[in-house]
Amino acid sequence: MPKVETFSRNEVLQKATEVFHTKGYNGTSMQDLVDATTLNRSSIYNSFGSKLGMFMDVLSYYYTNYKNQIGKKIVQSHNASEMIQAIFDIYVHDILTDNDRKGCLIVNCKSEMVNQEPIIKSFMEQNQEQTLAMLEDIVHNGQMEKIFNQKQTPYQYALYLYTSIQGIRMTGILNTNEKELKNLIQTVLNVLH
Amino acid sequence: MPKVETFSRNEVLQKATEVFHTKGYNGTSMQDLVDATTLNRSSIYNSFGSKLGMFMDVLSYYYTNYKNQIGKKIVQSHNASEMIQAIFDIYVHDILTDNDRKGCLIVNCKSEMVNQEPIIKSFMEQNQEQTLAMLEDIVHNGQMEKIFNQKQTPYQYALYLYTSIQGIRMTGILNTNEKELKNLIQTVLNVLH
DNA sequence: GTAATTTTGAAACGTTCATTTCAATTAAGA
DNA sequence: TCTTAATTGAAATGAACGTTTCAAAATTAC
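ok -> structure tokens follow
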């Protein structure tokens, strides 16, 4: 029987994520990935197929991490308001700890590649659909519980929240003032009440 | 005395803007720019110094165009509410006519380059400062006229609007449903009333 | 220990990258 | 018309690009 994959796939993906996140897809070279992962060039091609293949895995890895974080916070919450607040808190925390102003990998990738790579466009459509569905569900529950108003449909509020998250991710690249960001989020979320 | 520049600088910048907007900075090659502008390689280096130099001019050109559009709409408006509405209408119009989902050149560049190129970071800081100052001024006037509420300071509302604009620019890459976008904007702007 | 099969390392693939070079061309002022 | 200086075209620069190749090393099952 053959030799088996020796490296930790997650560790490699973590390292690759850091590079892609810092330099963007087009700004990252295969050499950067070889250096960061300490994997051999051939091993990368063996395991990930291509630069784009590796990037897709990185994107999923990054997204899964967010979904897990959000999932945990949601089960800890007692109502829809707390859930939404907890979700936004995750993003603020990431902004405040992102010392090199990288922004969000998914937002960055969306703006860089949606119009260039069909597979990225599909990923982003799925990402949007899933995020909207999650938010819509929370909003709907919040409206049932009379915590949120019913001036808009759950879908429209979900779209508003999704848009706000992306906006905050962009603003957070240059503005990392905690007080201003938290106030900003309160302004965003007050719309629901 | 010497021969003078024969090409129209604005026409060249227009063509270069289209390329950078479509492919991003790192995705654009000098050959792309030579092809698009029909300028010779040497002429580009003569007139713009470098790829980054040309890109900076493109960025200013693109930004100036927006400032002019907004300026015109502002003088046509009768109050703060109309001004803000007109500004957002410009962005919605651009989203709806952006058939290849390029998004906003400035937002794209911010997410791609702020953490890589100091000169881009400076540009974006200036862009943010100017945009916030403009919005703050409008909000302040709106509050004086009792058109807008005073739950937040003009600066905080400006930051909220600036963030919303960036968010809408990101959402608009994949979602080009006019009804949903206009509803979204009403949700955003209702906060002020 | 041997056979089987994958990972690994290092080099090489051909292409494209941003930039430079430089002689030829061009057009304005004297 | 001659001088002057910039524009132009085309080729060349060397480095970096993503990807492939292939023999050597490594690891598992028998």
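Chain B has a mean pLDDT of 96.
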